[in-house]
Amino acid sequence: MAFVTEKHLDDSQYTYKLSPSIKKYTLMDTTFIKNKLGNYELTRILENVPNSGDGPLLKIIVKSDLSGFKLSITDKSGLKNMNIFKSADNKMIQEKFYFQMNALVDCGVFVKA
């Protein structure tokens, strides 16, 4: 998957764009980790049951020069993309996704449209 400047997940309510005021220190403050390629990476498990360790994986990678990002929700192995918005059974997982993304919007990492 290539780096993009805006991303809309299938059936999601919002489109996310990198904030024009994004800073590298903001990524570090919001628990992004610099990977071996120099990109900033955030991985979170979206659990139905807290502390179960079972649920889809939210993965965000921001390019090292802050010009693009990747956003995906996959199965626990990280190999198969999932659509958590398709089924009403995933309401808790959807809420956790929106909570995480809203926190990143509030910190100035993303802008939602």
From TrEMBL:
SUPFAM superfamilies: Lp2179-like (SSF160800). It comes from the Bacteria. It holds the Pfam family DUF1831. This is DUF1831 domain-containing protein. It comes from Pseudolactococcus laudensis. The lineage of its organism: Bacteria, Bacillati, Bacillota, Bacilli, Lactobacillales.
